[in-house]
Amino acid sequence: MKLKNSRTWKQSGLNSIGICLLGFALTFCLRFVLNDILDESMSMLFFAINCIVMACFFGFWHSTGLLAISLPTAFYFFRKPYSSFEMLVVKDIYIIIIYATIILLASWIIEWLQRERYAAVLLQRVSETRYQLLIESDQARRVEQTRNSAA
């Protein structure tokens, strides 16, 4: 049985966008506080974790939107020269490609698994409902048989 509404496993609307932006802001603050310790290393790691966590709760598109704002933010604020997009070197391009690929692949896999889980839950509910209807029908048939045999 193919379910067409398996896409509705997640929350949507302004509330989910607000939570994603709050997660982005918290991630930025955490990375900013740790910037003296981490320097240039792991400039995207915290943002990648945020994108993947938000994919678990709000789906692929929210995660992709966060990725779109996380990449420039990480490279603008946490790569030397700070507060500048100058001096993007080949290494930076590789980092962008690697992080974008990992985040998009993880988000897509999470989306697929969440849809399958939601579809399984829906099918289980349908199966339980059909089973209950079958039991009620069988009980009604037995009651009818006992009335007919007593008469």
From TrEMBL:
Keyword presence, Phosphoprotein: yes
GO BP field: phosphorelay signal transduction system
Membrane topology according to the record: Multi-pass membrane protein
GO cellular component annotations of the record: membrane
Entry's transmembrane regions: 12-33, 45-78, 93-113
Gene3D superfamilies on file: Backbone structure of the membrane domain of e. Coli histidine kinase receptor kdpd
Listed name of the protein: K+-sensing histidine kinase KdpD
Organism: Glaciimonas immobilis
